[in-house]
Each structure stands twice: as structure tokens, then as C-alpha cells.
Design goal:
By secondary structure, the chain is α/β, with parallel strands linked by helices. The chain folds into 2 domains: about 1-115 and about 300-315, ATPase, nucleotide binding domain (Nucleotidyltransferase, domain 5, 2-Layer Sandwich); about 130-295, Nucleotidyltransferase, domain 5 (2-Layer Sandwich), CATH 3.30.420.40. The protein contains 10 helices and 10 strands. The strands form 2 sheets. The protein has a 5-stranded mixed β-sheet with strand order 3-2-1-4-5, with helices on both faces. Strands 8-7-6-9-10 form a 5-stranded mixed β-sheet, with helices on both faces. The chain is globular and about 65 Å long. The chain starts with a strand and ends in a 20-residue tail after the last helix.
């Protein structure tokens, strides 16, 4: 079964074709990130307008790369929540028009379920149940994936998402947006033990909190400025990355140990972080759990992950009507 996936929840306009939820046929991503970087973050209005401009050509290229016509796909899957609403609606309306015009089923896909499904594209052996840390620009969840479309949230951030913390710290350090890759790059030449940063206390065994950590970085920078000194950017980037990767990996591994999970995954933009991947990989091996990491090209927003999850949503009978709406927020375990 060939599913055309469409993704437009943030600043990537993406379309992809995936066979049976597992095999990538084509994958096209157009992005307004360079333009967004001028403003130090995503400006929703700009994102929506660029989606409207890019989406037809992006979908056409995904079809052309696969050597397919719209009539050749079996269903159209689209991110309908959560995300920047103006951005989400561009994809939803395009998918609706395409599905309506071709008479194909329309499959609504939750963006974070899509991030988790990015792992299915790389690892043919992976199937639920497993435990997954989903860490993106807007969310940080520790999720038990009980079945293809059944989830239980064990922990979450009580304030900033992990990616958001990377973005804010990058901005404080004068590093470009998006912050994750630029902090990781700066950290390469830094000493992760140079600055002592706190592990914020948080209620809930598997919950995380990053706002205190972000503030600690800001305070170090301001204190240095007041003393007429400069912060060592690589050292601070490395110290911050080390702390956040330690926090995330410890919580995930604690949840894995307590629930007896035998399979662990990472998902979302922050899953591209090398230090996080290393810590989770090492910890999983100590626990004797299997570890699956998404390929770097599937960590950030893309439509292949939406087509992959779309396949399982379709099999689960989750089809949308022509009144499908976009939603800015929606729990991953919605039914
Ligand atoms: O999943 P994603 O592409 O979009 C959302 O759904 O939000 O995640 C984007 C987030 C950004 O905050 C970005 O800074 C972060 O993922 N990110 C990283 C890395 N690459 C992207 N964070 C840490 N290390 C990275 N290598
Ligand atoms: Zn995302």
C-alpha cells in the first residue's frame, strides 16, 4: 500500500511516499528555515505563507520522484495536530483537496506519532511495545508505545521542551537558529565540565524541567558580562548539552528500568543530538534493552514519518471526513 504523506506543522513543507509504512519511495522537504533564522525563531505567519507557496511543487516532486501519478497512491496522510495552526491548515487543506479529487482515503496523523514512526523507516524489526523519548521543538515526552496507535505518556516537560531549551540557550550564546545543531557544533571543541549547571528538581518521577537550566545559562552569561568578561561559548555549549542530555537519558532509562521495557527508541529533532544518542545507547546496553535510533535525516520534520504512521492509522481504521480540521494542540494518546 502506497501512502502519500504531507507535513506542514512548523517551517518544513514536506511530502513523501512510503510503501506499507516501512519502505521509503520518495521524500521531499522544502523549508523556510533560512528566512526564519533571520528572526531567531519561527515566525508563524511567514511559515504559513511559505507553505502555501511551496506545497504544490513539493507534493508534485514527491510524486515525480516516485514515478507516480496522484491516482497511483492508495491514501493521503496528513499532519493535522499539533502545530502552528496556520501552518497545519495549509497541509490539511491541500491533502483534503487531493484526497477528494482522487477519491482516496484521507488519514489524519498526529505529528508526534509521526516522529515515533520515523524509526519504522530505518528498523524493519522494530514493532510495539517499546519505550520512546520524543523530544522536539515543542514537546518532550517519555511515551510507552503499547501498540501502533496506542500510547501511554509516562513523563513530560513541565515547562520548556528540550528543543526549545537548545534554541533559547543558543540565542543567549549568540549562536544561530535552530539552536540544537549550532549548540552541538559549538560543543565539539568545548569542555562539558567547564560550567556547573543545575539539574532542576521536578515533581513526577519521569517528568523533566528545563526552564531553570536555561535561566542558569543566562545568569552565567549576564554575570560574566557584568564582570567585563566573556563567556567561553564552546565550554558553555558543551556544559549545557551535557546537562540536558544527562537529564533526558536518565529519565528515559529510569522509566525503562521501572517498566521492564526491553526496547527503547528516540524520536524528534533533538534525537539528532550525538551526546544524547550516545548516553541512551550506552544506558540501554547496560539494561540489556534493544535500542533503536532514527536516522539523522528522519529526526527533524519530514513527511516520510507521517506516511509511515499514516499506514498504521489506516489499518487501525482512523480515517478523516471532509470536515477534518487542524488542531494547535492534541494529546498523543487521543482516541
Ligand atoms: O522535531 P523537530 O524538527 O520540529 C518540531 O516538531 O518541533 O524539532 C526541532 C527542534 C529544534 O528545537 C532544534 O533546535 C532541535 O530540534 N534540534 C536539535 C538538534 N537538531 C535539531 N537539538 C539538539 N541537538 C541537535 N543536533
Ligand atoms: Zn516535529
Amino acid at each position: 500500500m502506497y501512502i502519500l504523506g504531507i507535513e506542514s506543522s512548523c517551517d518544513e513543507t514536506a511530502a513523501a511516499i512510503v510503501k506499507d509504512g516501512r519502505t521509503l519511495i520518495s521524500n521531499v522537504i522544502s523549508t523556510s528555515v533560512q528566512e526564519q533564522a533571520l528572526y531567531g525563531g519561527v515566525v508563524p505567519e511567514i511559515a504559513s505563507r511559505r507553505h502555501a507557496e511551496y506545497i504544490s511543487a513539493t507534493v508534485q516532486k514527491a510524486l515525480a520522484d516516485a514515478g507516480m501519478q496522484p491516482a497511483d497512491v492508495d491514501a493521503v496522510a496528513v499532519t493535522f495536530a499539533p502545530g502552528l495552526i496556520g501552518a497545519v491548515l495549509v497541509g490539511v487543506n491541500f491533502a483534503k483537496g487531493l484526497a477528494y479529487g482522487t477519491g482516496k482515503p484521507l488519514v489524519p496523523v498526529h505529528h508526534l506519532r509521526g516522529h515515533i514512526a520515523a524509526n519504522y523507516l530505518t528498523h524493519p524489526a522494530l514493532k510495539p511495545p517499546f519505550l520512546c523519548l520524543v523530544a522536539s521543538g515543542g514537546h518532550s515526552h517519555i511515551v510507552e508505545v503499547a501498540d501502533w496507535c496506542r500510547y501511554r505518556v509516562l513523563g513530560r516537560t513541565v515547562d520548556d521542551a528540550a528543543g526549545e531549551a537548545f534554541d533559547k540557550v543558543a540565542r543567549t550564546l549568540g549562536l544561530p537558529y535552530p539552536g540544537g545543531p549550532s549548540v552541538a557544533q559549538a560543543a565539539k571543541t568545548g569542555d562539558p565540565h567547564a560550567y556547573k549547571l543545575p539539574t532542576p528538581h521536578v515533581e513526577g518521577k519521569y517528568n523533566v524541567s528545563f526552564s531553570g537550566l536555561k535561566t542558569a545559562v543566562m545568569n552565567e552569561v549576564h554575570n560574566a558580562q557584568q564582570r567585563g568578561q566573556e563567556i567561553n561559548v564552546p565550554d558553555m555549549a558543551a556544559s549545557f548539552q551535557e546537562r540536558i542530555a544527562q537529564i533526558l537519558s536518565k529519565k528515559l532509562l529510569a522509566a525503562a528500568a521501572d517498566t521492564g521495557a526491553t526496547t527503547i527508541c528516540l524520536a524528534g529533532g533533538v534525537a539528532a543530538n550525538g551526546r544524547l544518542r550516545q548516553l541512551v545507547n550506552d544506558g540501554a546496553q547496560k539494561l540489556g534493552a534493544k535500542i533503536y535510533l532514527p536516522e539523522l535525516k528522519f529526526c527533524g520534520d519530514n513527511a516520510a514519518m507521517i506516511a509511515a504512521q499514516g499506514y498504521y492509522e489506516y489499518l487501525d481504521g482512523n480515517l478523516a471526513g471532509w470536515d477534518l480540521n487542524g488542531l494547535p494542540t492534541l494529546a498523543i494518546d487521543y482516541r
